[in-house]
Design brief:
The chain is mainly alpha-helical and 105 residues long. It is 65% helix and 4% strand. The radius of gyration is 20 Å and the shape is elongated.
Length: 105
């Protein structure tokens, strides 16, 4: 699981990139789950607005903000991968996704 960074039962500095990878994957999972919940909640608010224009606008804004936040997160990964391609730094490639940090040795 940790890619050989544990020697004789003791974690080495080689575990730090894997640890960051797992933390980022966990955070991304939580963010995705939270975004889906918020979109569903805003959709329910939109449906139950009963024609009240103020409530409809609040629901639309909530959906817009959630989608904008997700796009910012996705673009940040795109920018990191672009920088990795330009500079040739393998450690940044697919940061936190898959084996992106596995080549940092």
């Amino acid at each position: 699981m940790w890619g050989g960074c544990v020697v004789n039962g003791v974690a080495t500095l080689g575990c730090i990139p894997k640890l960051y990878q797992y933390i980022i994957q966990g955070i991304l999972g939580l963010i995705g789950t939270l975004a889906v919940i918020l979109i569903i909640f805003a959709g329910i608010r939109f449906i139950t607005a009963s024609g009240d224009s103020k409530k409809v606008e609040e629901a639309k804004k909530a959906i817009t903000y959630v989608i904008a936040g997700l796009l910012i997160i996705l673009f940040s990964f795109f920018i990191i991968n672009l920088i990795a391609d330009i500079t040739g730094v393998r450690c940044l490639k697919n940061f936190g996704i898959g084996n992106g940090l596995g080549g940092c040795n």
